[in-house]
Amino acid sequence: MNKTVRGLSICLALGLSMTAIAGCSTSTNETSTAAPSASAGTTASAPAQVVKQTFNVLNYSNPSWPYNKDNISWKLIEEKTGVSLNVQLPSGKLDDALSVTIASGNLPDMMMTQDKKLADKYGQQGALVNILDYINEMPNLKKWMEKYPVDAQNTISSDGKMYMFPNAGIGETNRMIWMYRDDIFKKLGLSEPKTWDELYTALKKIKEAYPKSYPLSFRNGLQRLLNFAPAFGTGSDVYYDFDKKEWRYGPLEDNYKQMIVYLNKFYKEGLIPPDFLSADTKLWQDLMSTERAFVTVDYIGRIDFFNSALRKDKPDFNLAFMGAPIGFAGAPAKNAYTQYLDEGFMIATTSKKIKEIMKFMDFFYSEEGKTLASWGKEGVTYKTENGKKQFIEKYADVADMRKKTGISTDGTYAWFDYDAHLSLSSPELQKAYQEAPKYDSQQQPRPAFTSAEMENLSLSGDTIMKKRDENISKFIVGERSLEDWPKYVSDMKALGVDKIVDIYKKAYDRALKK
Protein backbone atom coordinates (compact mmCIF):
# COMPACT_ATOMS: atom_id res chain seq x y z
CA MET A 1 0.00 0.00 0.00
CA ASN A 2 1.42 3.45 -0.83
CA LYS A 3 2.22 6.11 1.74
CA THR A 4 -0.89 8.18 1.08
CA VAL A 5 -3.23 5.25 1.62
CA ARG A 6 -1.34 4.04 4.74
CA GLY A 7 -1.56 7.48 6.29
CA LEU A 8 -5.30 8.03 5.99
CA SER A 9 -6.49 10.17 8.95
CA ILE A 10 -9.46 9.43 9.61
CA CYS A 11 -32.45 0.56 6.22
CA LEU A 12 -33.06 -3.24 6.32
CA ALA A 13 -34.67 -6.22 5.88
CA LEU A 14 -34.47 -10.14 6.88
CA GLY A 15 -35.52 -13.23 8.62
CA LEU A 16 -33.87 -15.03 5.76
CA SER A 17 -33.93 -18.74 6.48
CA MET A 18 -30.99 -21.10 6.27
CA THR A 19 -32.58 -22.89 3.33
CA ALA A 20 -33.10 -19.64 1.44
CA ILE A 21 -29.39 -18.92 1.70
CA ALA A 22 -28.18 -22.43 1.09
CA GLY A 23 -28.42 -22.15 -2.66
CA CYS A 24 -26.15 -19.13 -3.02
CA SER A 25 -22.78 -20.28 -1.75
CA THR A 26 -20.98 -21.16 -4.96
CA SER A 27 -19.68 -19.02 -7.80
CA THR A 28 -20.38 -19.77 -11.43
CA ASN A 29 -18.06 -19.72 -14.42
CA GLU A 30 -19.62 -19.41 -17.85
CA THR A 31 -18.20 -19.64 -21.35
CA SER A 32 -15.42 -17.32 -22.35
CA THR A 33 -16.68 -14.25 -24.11
CA ALA A 34 -15.45 -10.87 -25.28
CA ALA A 35 -16.92 -8.91 -22.37
CA PRO A 36 -15.25 -5.76 -21.08
CA SER A 37 -13.90 -5.40 -17.56
CA ALA A 38 -11.80 -2.97 -15.55
CA SER A 39 -8.08 -3.49 -16.04
CA ALA A 40 -6.15 -4.39 -12.93
CA GLY A 41 -2.95 -2.84 -14.18
CA THR A 42 -4.07 0.65 -15.09
CA THR A 43 -6.52 3.27 -13.95
CA ALA A 44 -7.90 3.40 -17.46
CA SER A 45 -11.23 1.62 -17.60
CA ALA A 46 -10.67 0.17 -21.08
CA PRO A 47 -11.49 -3.50 -20.52
CA ALA A 48 -9.79 -6.62 -21.72
CA GLN A 49 -11.22 -9.96 -22.84
CA VAL A 50 -12.62 -11.69 -19.76
CA VAL A 51 -14.49 -14.82 -18.80
CA LYS A 52 -18.16 -14.12 -18.42
CA GLN A 53 -19.03 -15.01 -14.85
CA THR A 54 -21.68 -14.87 -12.17
CA PHE A 55 -21.25 -13.88 -8.53
CA ASN A 56 -23.79 -14.86 -5.90
CA VAL A 57 -24.92 -11.87 -3.87
CA LEU A 58 -27.00 -11.13 -0.78
CA ASN A 59 -28.46 -7.71 -1.61
CA TYR A 60 -31.08 -5.30 -0.26
CA SER A 61 -34.31 -4.27 -1.95
CA ASN A 62 -35.60 -0.81 -1.03
CA PRO A 63 -39.42 -0.74 -0.83
CA SER A 64 -39.46 2.60 -2.68
CA TRP A 65 -37.39 1.28 -5.61
CA PRO A 66 -37.35 -2.51 -5.28
CA TYR A 67 -34.80 -4.77 -6.89
CA ASN A 68 -35.80 -5.89 -10.39
CA LYS A 69 -33.49 -8.26 -12.20
CA ASP A 70 -34.85 -6.98 -15.53
CA ASN A 71 -33.84 -3.35 -14.89
CA ILE A 72 -31.50 -1.98 -17.53
CA SER A 73 -28.90 -1.04 -14.89
CA TRP A 74 -28.02 -4.72 -14.35
CA LYS A 75 -27.86 -5.36 -18.09
CA LEU A 76 -25.48 -2.42 -18.58
CA ILE A 77 -23.25 -3.60 -15.74
CA GLU A 78 -23.03 -7.05 -17.29
CA GLU A 79 -22.39 -5.59 -20.75
CA LYS A 80 -19.50 -3.50 -19.46
CA THR A 81 -17.89 -5.92 -16.98
CA GLY A 82 -18.92 -9.37 -18.13
CA VAL A 83 -20.36 -9.99 -14.67
CA SER A 84 -23.90 -10.91 -13.79
CA LEU A 85 -25.10 -11.05 -10.21
CA ASN A 86 -27.24 -13.87 -8.89
CA VAL A 87 -29.12 -11.85 -6.30
CA GLN A 88 -30.71 -13.25 -3.15
CA LEU A 89 -33.01 -10.93 -1.19
CA PRO A 90 -33.77 -10.98 2.53
CA SER A 91 -37.34 -11.50 3.66
CA GLY A 92 -36.81 -9.47 6.80
CA LYS A 93 -34.11 -7.18 8.13
CA LEU A 94 -30.80 -7.17 6.31
CA ASP A 95 -28.70 -7.24 9.47
CA ASP A 96 -30.64 -10.30 10.68
CA ALA A 97 -30.04 -11.99 7.34
CA LEU A 98 -26.33 -11.33 7.57
CA SER A 99 -26.23 -12.85 11.04
CA VAL A 100 -28.00 -16.00 9.84
CA THR A 101 -25.84 -16.23 6.74
CA ILE A 102 -22.54 -15.81 8.59
CA ALA A 103 -23.58 -18.33 11.24
CA SER A 104 -24.46 -20.89 8.56
CA GLY A 105 -20.97 -20.80 7.07
CA ASN A 106 -22.66 -21.15 3.67
CA LEU A 107 -21.88 -17.69 2.31
CA PRO A 108 -22.55 -16.08 -1.07
CA ASP A 109 -19.59 -14.42 -2.79
CA MET A 110 -20.72 -10.92 -1.87
CA MET A 111 -22.98 -9.48 0.81
CA MET A 112 -24.46 -6.02 1.15
CA THR A 113 -24.37 -4.24 4.50
CA GLN A 114 -25.86 -0.95 5.62
CA ASP A 115 -23.95 -0.92 8.87
CA LYS A 116 -20.18 -0.64 8.81
CA LYS A 117 -19.96 -1.94 12.37
CA LEU A 118 -21.31 -5.28 11.15
CA ALA A 119 -18.61 -5.42 8.48
CA ASP A 120 -15.99 -4.86 11.19
CA LYS A 121 -17.56 -7.49 13.43
CA TYR A 122 -17.80 -10.23 10.82
CA GLY A 123 -14.49 -9.29 9.25
CA GLN A 124 -12.63 -9.67 12.53
CA GLN A 125 -14.34 -13.03 13.00
CA GLY A 126 -12.66 -14.16 9.78
CA ALA A 127 -15.75 -14.29 7.56
CA LEU A 128 -14.82 -11.36 5.30
CA VAL A 129 -11.89 -10.53 3.04
CA ASN A 130 -9.59 -7.62 3.90
CA ILE A 131 -9.92 -5.51 0.75
CA LEU A 132 -6.62 -3.73 1.45
CA ASP A 133 -4.78 -7.00 0.86
CA TYR A 134 -5.65 -6.55 -2.82
CA ILE A 135 -5.28 -2.78 -3.09
CA ASN A 136 -2.31 -2.98 -5.47
CA GLU A 137 -4.48 -4.98 -7.86
CA MET A 138 -7.16 -2.28 -7.77
CA PRO A 139 -5.64 0.87 -9.32
CA ASN A 140 -8.95 2.71 -9.50
CA LEU A 141 -9.83 2.14 -5.85
CA LYS A 142 -6.29 2.99 -4.79
CA LYS A 143 -6.44 6.29 -6.63
CA TRP A 144 -9.96 6.95 -5.28
CA MET A 145 -8.80 6.42 -1.69
CA GLU A 146 -6.06 8.98 -2.18
CA LYS A 147 -8.64 11.45 -3.51
CA TYR A 148 -11.20 10.80 -0.74
CA PRO A 149 -9.16 9.95 2.38
CA VAL A 150 -11.94 10.70 4.89
CA ASP A 151 -14.49 8.52 3.08
CA ALA A 152 -11.88 5.78 2.80
CA GLN A 153 -10.84 6.04 6.45
CA ASN A 154 -14.45 5.75 7.57
CA THR A 155 -14.49 2.21 6.18
CA ILE A 156 -11.31 1.12 8.02
CA SER A 157 -11.78 -1.28 10.92
CA SER A 158 -10.11 -0.98 14.33
CA ASP A 159 -7.55 -3.57 13.21
CA GLY A 160 -6.54 -1.37 10.27
CA LYS A 161 -8.31 -3.52 7.68
CA MET A 162 -11.13 -2.76 5.26
CA TYR A 163 -13.97 -5.26 5.17
CA MET A 164 -16.54 -3.15 3.28
CA PHE A 165 -16.13 -1.28 0.01
CA PRO A 166 -16.42 2.49 0.52
CA ASN A 167 -18.85 4.74 -1.30
CA ALA A 168 -19.15 8.45 -1.99
CA GLY A 169 -21.53 10.79 -3.74
CA ILE A 170 -24.94 9.27 -3.20
CA GLY A 171 -24.81 10.21 0.47
CA GLU A 172 -25.95 13.67 -0.70
CA THR A 173 -29.46 12.26 -0.66
CA ASN A 174 -29.20 12.25 3.15
CA ARG A 175 -28.40 15.98 3.41
CA MET A 176 -30.70 17.65 5.95
CA ILE A 177 -31.58 21.34 5.99
CA TRP A 178 -33.98 23.91 7.39
CA MET A 179 -36.98 24.70 5.17
CA TYR A 180 -39.74 27.29 5.46
CA ARG A 181 -42.97 28.25 3.73
CA ASP A 182 -41.72 31.21 1.75
CA ASP A 183 -45.23 32.00 0.49
CA ILE A 184 -46.64 32.29 4.02
CA PHE A 185 -43.68 34.33 5.26
CA LYS A 186 -44.20 36.79 2.41
CA LYS A 187 -47.94 36.89 3.03
CA LEU A 188 -47.30 37.84 6.67
CA GLY A 189 -44.47 40.25 5.85
CA LEU A 190 -41.85 38.10 7.58
CA SER A 191 -38.20 37.74 6.65
CA GLU A 192 -36.22 34.52 6.68
CA PRO A 193 -34.96 34.20 10.29
CA LYS A 194 -31.19 34.37 10.71
CA THR A 195 -31.06 33.65 14.46
CA TRP A 196 -33.09 31.60 16.91
CA ASP A 197 -34.41 34.86 18.40
CA GLU A 198 -35.67 35.88 14.98
CA LEU A 199 -37.04 32.37 14.53
CA TYR A 200 -38.97 32.71 17.79
CA THR A 201 -40.42 36.07 16.70
CA ALA A 202 -41.47 34.68 13.31
CA LEU A 203 -43.08 31.59 14.86
CA LYS A 204 -45.03 33.79 17.27
CA LYS A 205 -46.44 35.91 14.44
CA ILE A 206 -47.36 32.82 12.44
CA LYS A 207 -49.12 31.39 15.50
CA GLU A 208 -51.16 34.59 15.79
CA ALA A 209 -52.21 34.35 12.14
CA TYR A 210 -52.83 30.57 12.31
CA PRO A 211 -53.89 29.84 15.92
CA LYS A 212 -54.44 26.13 15.30
CA SER A 213 -50.96 25.66 13.87
CA TYR A 214 -47.67 24.55 15.38
CA PRO A 215 -45.37 26.68 13.22
CA LEU A 216 -42.18 24.67 13.81
CA SER A 217 -42.78 20.97 13.30
CA PHE A 218 -40.44 18.05 12.77
CA ARG A 219 -40.55 14.28 12.96
CA ASN A 220 -38.66 11.76 15.11
CA GLY A 221 -38.60 13.89 18.23
CA LEU A 222 -35.23 14.25 19.93
CA GLN A 223 -33.41 12.94 16.85
CA ARG A 224 -33.69 16.45 15.40
CA LEU A 225 -31.45 17.83 18.14
CA LEU A 226 -28.70 16.45 15.94
CA ASN A 227 -29.66 19.13 13.40
CA PHE A 228 -30.16 21.97 15.89
CA ALA A 229 -26.99 21.48 17.96
CA PRO A 230 -24.30 22.74 15.51
CA ALA A 231 -25.84 26.23 15.47
CA PHE A 232 -25.30 26.31 19.24
CA GLY A 233 -21.67 25.26 18.92
CA THR A 234 -22.24 21.81 20.38
CA GLY A 235 -23.27 18.28 19.47
CA SER A 236 -26.24 16.05 20.25
CA ASP A 237 -24.06 13.19 21.55
CA VAL A 238 -20.33 12.47 21.66
CA TYR A 239 -18.69 14.74 19.09
CA TYR A 240 -15.25 15.93 18.02
CA ASP A 241 -14.54 19.63 18.57
CA PHE A 242 -12.25 20.53 15.67
CA ASP A 243 -11.31 23.88 17.22
CA LYS A 244 -10.32 22.45 20.58
CA LYS A 245 -9.13 19.20 19.02
CA GLU A 246 -10.87 17.07 21.60
CA TRP A 247 -13.83 14.73 22.02
CA ARG A 248 -16.73 16.10 24.03
CA TYR A 249 -20.23 15.18 25.16
CA GLY A 250 -22.65 17.83 23.94
CA PRO A 251 -25.74 17.15 26.11
CA LEU A 252 -23.91 18.29 29.26
CA GLU A 253 -22.64 21.59 27.88
CA ASP A 254 -24.01 25.06 28.60
CA ASN A 255 -24.43 25.67 24.86
CA TYR A 256 -26.66 22.61 24.67
CA LYS A 257 -28.69 23.93 27.59
CA GLN A 258 -29.32 27.17 25.66
CA MET A 259 -30.85 25.12 22.86
CA ILE A 260 -33.12 23.35 25.36
CA VAL A 261 -34.18 26.72 26.82
CA TYR A 262 -35.45 27.75 23.38
CA LEU A 263 -37.28 24.47 22.81
CA ASN A 264 -38.87 24.70 26.24
CA LYS A 265 -40.14 28.17 25.38
CA PHE A 266 -41.40 26.97 22.00
CA TYR A 267 -43.24 24.10 23.68
CA LYS A 268 -44.89 26.24 26.36
CA GLU A 269 -46.16 28.71 23.76
CA GLY A 270 -47.50 26.11 21.34
CA LEU A 271 -44.92 26.82 18.66
CA ILE A 272 -44.08 23.12 18.36
CA PRO A 273 -46.63 20.28 18.58
CA PRO A 274 -47.52 18.98 22.05
CA ASP A 275 -46.77 15.44 20.82
CA PHE A 276 -43.52 16.35 19.02
CA LEU A 277 -41.66 13.57 20.87
CA SER A 278 -43.73 10.89 19.18
CA ALA A 279 -44.47 12.63 15.86
CA ASP A 280 -43.93 10.17 13.04
CA THR A 281 -43.56 10.83 9.32
CA LYS A 282 -47.31 10.69 8.59
CA LEU A 283 -48.26 13.17 11.31
CA TRP A 284 -45.50 15.52 10.28
CA GLN A 285 -46.49 15.34 6.61
CA ASP A 286 -50.11 16.05 7.54
CA LEU A 287 -49.08 19.15 9.49
CA MET A 288 -46.78 20.43 6.74
CA SER A 289 -49.40 20.00 4.02
CA THR A 290 -52.45 21.47 5.77
CA GLU A 291 -51.42 24.97 6.90
CA ARG A 292 -50.59 23.73 10.40
CA ALA A 293 -46.78 23.86 10.15
CA PHE A 294 -44.55 26.25 8.26
CA VAL A 295 -40.92 25.66 9.31
CA THR A 296 -39.17 22.32 9.51
CA VAL A 297 -35.88 20.40 9.34
CA ASP A 298 -35.64 17.32 7.16
CA TYR A 299 -34.04 15.84 4.05
CA ILE A 300 -33.40 18.40 1.35
CA GLY A 301 -35.42 16.39 -1.18
CA ARG A 302 -38.56 17.21 0.79
CA ILE A 303 -38.66 20.51 -1.08
CA ASP A 304 -39.80 18.72 -4.23
CA PHE A 305 -41.74 16.12 -2.26
CA PHE A 306 -44.13 18.73 -0.87
CA ASN A 307 -44.07 21.32 -3.65
CA SER A 308 -44.77 18.85 -6.45
CA ALA A 309 -47.74 17.30 -4.68
CA LEU A 310 -49.34 20.38 -3.13
CA ARG A 311 -49.04 22.92 -5.94
CA LYS A 312 -51.74 21.05 -7.86
CA ASP A 313 -54.31 22.48 -5.44
CA LYS A 314 -52.25 25.33 -3.98
CA PRO A 315 -50.30 26.96 -6.85
CA ASP A 316 -48.55 29.40 -4.48
CA PHE A 317 -47.34 26.70 -2.08
CA ASN A 318 -43.58 27.14 -1.77
CA LEU A 319 -41.47 25.19 0.70
CA ALA A 320 -38.04 26.76 0.29
CA PHE A 321 -34.49 26.39 1.56
CA MET A 322 -33.70 28.25 4.78
CA GLY A 323 -30.25 28.95 6.11
CA ALA A 324 -29.43 27.52 9.52
CA PRO A 325 -30.33 30.14 12.16
CA ILE A 326 -27.61 31.04 14.69
CA GLY A 327 -28.27 29.94 18.25
CA PHE A 328 -26.53 32.86 19.95
CA ALA A 329 -23.97 35.56 19.22
CA GLY A 330 -20.72 34.03 18.08
CA ALA A 331 -22.20 30.60 17.33
CA PRO A 332 -21.87 29.24 13.78
CA ALA A 333 -24.69 29.15 11.23
CA LYS A 334 -24.26 25.43 10.65
CA ASN A 335 -26.25 22.32 9.86
CA ALA A 336 -25.18 18.87 10.97
CA TYR A 337 -23.17 16.94 8.39
CA THR A 338 -25.53 14.11 7.40
CA GLN A 339 -24.67 13.60 3.73
CA TYR A 340 -22.98 10.23 3.96
CA LEU A 341 -24.15 6.66 3.57
CA ASP A 342 -22.83 3.58 5.36
CA GLU A 343 -23.52 0.99 2.70
CA GLY A 344 -21.34 -1.30 0.67
CA PHE A 345 -20.49 -4.80 -0.46
CA MET A 346 -18.40 -7.25 1.54
CA ILE A 347 -16.64 -10.33 0.15
CA ALA A 348 -16.76 -13.72 1.83
CA THR A 349 -13.45 -15.40 2.55
CA THR A 350 -15.04 -18.65 1.34
CA SER A 351 -15.56 -17.28 -2.18
CA LYS A 352 -13.60 -18.94 -4.98
CA LYS A 353 -13.65 -15.71 -7.01
CA ILE A 354 -12.05 -13.15 -4.70
CA LYS A 355 -9.61 -11.72 -7.25
CA GLU A 356 -12.28 -11.60 -9.94
CA ILE A 357 -14.63 -9.76 -7.59
CA MET A 358 -11.89 -7.26 -6.73
CA LYS A 359 -11.39 -6.53 -10.42
CA PHE A 360 -15.15 -6.18 -10.88
CA MET A 361 -15.54 -3.77 -7.94
CA ASP A 362 -12.48 -1.78 -8.98
CA PHE A 363 -14.31 -0.74 -12.15
CA PHE A 364 -16.84 1.25 -10.11
CA TYR A 365 -14.09 3.54 -8.78
CA SER A 366 -13.14 4.66 -12.30
CA GLU A 367 -14.70 7.68 -14.02
CA GLU A 368 -16.34 5.32 -16.47
CA GLY A 369 -17.71 3.22 -13.62
CA LYS A 370 -19.05 6.30 -11.86
CA THR A 371 -20.83 7.42 -15.03
CA LEU A 372 -22.36 3.99 -15.59
CA ALA A 373 -23.56 3.77 -11.99
CA SER A 374 -24.99 7.30 -12.05
CA TRP A 375 -26.37 7.78 -15.56
CA GLY A 376 -26.27 4.45 -17.35
CA LYS A 377 -25.14 4.36 -20.98
CA GLU A 378 -24.91 7.31 -23.34
CA GLY A 379 -27.46 7.10 -26.12
CA VAL A 380 -29.46 4.53 -24.18
CA THR A 381 -30.39 6.11 -20.84
CA TYR A 382 -28.75 9.53 -21.11
CA LYS A 383 -27.50 12.06 -23.64
CA THR A 384 -25.06 14.96 -23.49
CA GLU A 385 -26.14 18.43 -24.62
CA ASN A 386 -24.02 21.56 -24.27
CA GLY A 387 -21.55 19.60 -22.16
CA LYS A 388 -24.21 18.44 -19.68
CA LYS A 389 -25.64 14.98 -19.23
CA GLN A 390 -29.37 14.48 -18.99
CA PHE A 391 -31.63 11.46 -18.94
CA ILE A 392 -33.33 10.71 -22.24
CA GLU A 393 -36.64 9.62 -20.75
CA LYS A 394 -38.72 12.11 -18.78
CA TYR A 395 -39.05 10.82 -15.25
CA ALA A 396 -41.42 12.21 -12.63
CA ASP A 397 -38.66 12.27 -10.03
CA VAL A 398 -35.63 10.35 -8.79
CA ALA A 399 -37.74 7.55 -7.31
CA ASP A 400 -39.47 7.10 -10.67
CA MET A 401 -36.11 6.90 -12.44
CA ARG A 402 -34.79 4.36 -9.94
CA LYS A 403 -37.85 2.14 -10.26
CA LYS A 404 -37.84 2.19 -14.06
CA THR A 405 -34.11 1.79 -14.68
CA GLY A 406 -32.58 0.36 -11.50
CA ILE A 407 -29.92 3.09 -11.69
CA SER A 408 -28.71 4.15 -8.21
CA THR A 409 -30.53 1.27 -6.52
CA ASP A 410 -28.75 -0.83 -3.93
CA GLY A 411 -25.79 -2.79 -5.26
CA THR A 412 -25.36 -0.80 -8.48
CA TYR A 413 -22.97 1.91 -7.31
CA ALA A 414 -19.93 2.74 -5.22
CA TRP A 415 -18.84 6.15 -6.53
CA PHE A 416 -21.77 8.29 -7.59
CA ASP A 417 -22.26 11.50 -9.58
CA TYR A 418 -25.04 13.26 -7.72
CA ASP A 419 -25.64 15.56 -10.67
CA ALA A 420 -27.67 12.65 -12.06
CA HIS A 421 -30.23 13.07 -9.30
CA LEU A 422 -30.08 16.85 -9.43
CA SER A 423 -30.90 16.77 -13.14
CA LEU A 424 -34.35 15.48 -12.17
CA SER A 425 -34.89 18.12 -9.49
CA SER A 426 -36.86 21.35 -9.63
CA PRO A 427 -35.11 24.73 -9.91
CA GLU A 428 -35.95 25.32 -6.23
CA LEU A 429 -34.26 22.11 -5.15
CA GLN A 430 -31.24 22.72 -7.36
CA LYS A 431 -30.89 26.17 -5.79
CA ALA A 432 -31.11 24.60 -2.34
CA TYR A 433 -28.23 22.28 -3.23
CA GLN A 434 -26.19 25.32 -4.26
CA GLU A 435 -26.89 27.11 -0.98
CA ALA A 436 -26.76 24.21 1.48
CA PRO A 437 -22.96 23.63 1.46
CA LYS A 438 -22.49 27.15 2.85
CA TYR A 439 -23.95 25.84 6.11
CA ASP A 440 -22.09 22.53 6.29
CA SER A 441 -20.46 21.47 9.50
CA GLN A 442 -17.19 19.62 9.15
CA GLN A 443 -17.79 15.91 8.73
CA GLN A 444 -17.45 14.17 12.09
CA PRO A 445 -14.90 11.35 12.37
CA ARG A 446 -16.52 7.94 12.72
CA PRO A 447 -13.96 5.94 14.73
CA ALA A 448 -13.74 2.17 14.35
CA PHE A 449 -14.24 0.39 17.66
CA THR A 450 -12.92 -2.93 18.90
CA SER A 451 -15.37 -5.65 19.94
CA ALA A 452 -14.79 -4.81 23.60
CA GLU A 453 -15.39 -1.11 22.95
CA MET A 454 -18.58 -1.82 21.01
CA GLU A 455 -19.85 -3.97 23.87
CA ASN A 456 -19.09 -1.21 26.36
CA LEU A 457 -20.81 1.38 24.18
CA SER A 458 -23.79 -0.92 23.79
CA LEU A 459 -24.21 -1.49 27.51
CA SER A 460 -23.10 1.72 29.23
CA GLY A 461 -23.85 3.87 26.19
CA ASP A 462 -27.45 2.69 25.95
CA THR A 463 -28.03 3.38 29.64
CA ILE A 464 -26.60 6.87 29.30
CA MET A 465 -28.63 7.59 26.15
CA LYS A 466 -31.91 6.50 27.77
CA LYS A 467 -31.29 8.60 30.88
CA ARG A 468 -30.25 11.58 28.74
CA ASP A 469 -33.32 11.39 26.52
CA GLU A 470 -35.61 10.96 29.50
CA ASN A 471 -34.28 14.10 31.15
CA ILE A 472 -34.00 16.24 28.03
CA SER A 473 -37.63 15.42 27.20
CA LYS A 474 -38.67 16.51 30.69
CA PHE A 475 -36.71 19.75 30.42
CA ILE A 476 -38.38 20.62 27.11
CA VAL A 477 -41.97 19.87 28.18
CA GLY A 478 -41.49 21.46 31.60
CA GLU A 479 -41.73 18.32 33.73
CA ARG A 480 -38.31 19.14 35.13
CA SER A 481 -37.10 22.66 35.86
CA LEU A 482 -34.08 23.92 33.98
CA GLU A 483 -32.77 25.04 37.35
CA ASP A 484 -32.00 21.36 37.88
CA TRP A 485 -29.51 21.34 35.00
CA PRO A 486 -26.40 21.13 37.25
CA LYS A 487 -27.90 18.11 39.05
CA TYR A 488 -28.68 16.49 35.70
CA VAL A 489 -25.07 17.02 34.60
CA SER A 490 -23.63 15.47 37.77
CA ASP A 491 -26.02 12.50 37.52
CA MET A 492 -25.01 11.87 33.93
CA LYS A 493 -21.33 12.04 34.78
CA ALA A 494 -21.93 9.49 37.53
CA LEU A 495 -23.29 7.10 34.88
CA GLY A 496 -19.92 7.16 33.12
CA VAL A 497 -20.18 9.77 30.36
CA ASP A 498 -16.46 10.49 30.58
CA LYS A 499 -15.67 6.81 30.00
CA ILE A 500 -17.77 6.81 26.83
CA VAL A 501 -15.98 9.91 25.58
CA ASP A 502 -12.66 8.25 26.36
CA ILE A 503 -13.60 5.24 24.21
CA TYR A 504 -14.12 7.57 21.25
CA LYS A 505 -10.82 9.32 21.97
CA LYS A 506 -8.86 6.07 22.12
CA ALA A 507 -10.46 4.73 18.95
CA TYR A 508 -9.74 7.99 17.13
CA ASP A 509 -6.13 8.15 18.34
CA ARG A 510 -5.61 4.53 17.36
CA ALA A 511 -6.77 5.27 13.83
CA LEU A 512 -4.47 8.28 13.58
CA LYS A 513 -1.50 6.16 14.61
CA LYS A 514 -2.32 3.57 11.96
From TrEMBL:
Indicate yes or no for the key word Membrane. Answer: yes
Q: This protein is called what?
A: Extracellular solute-binding protein
* Entry-linked Pfam families: SBP_bac_1
Q: Which residues cross the membrane?
A: none
PANTHER family, alphabetized: ARABINOSE-BINDING PROTEIN-RELATED (PTHR43649), POLYGALACTURONAN_RHAMNOGALACTURONAN-BINDING PROTEIN YTCQ (PTHR43649:SF33)
The protein's organism comes out as Paenibacillus plantarum
Which key words tag this protein in UniProt?
Answer: Cell membrane, Lipoprotein, Membrane, Palmitate, Signal
| N-terminal signal peptide | 1-22
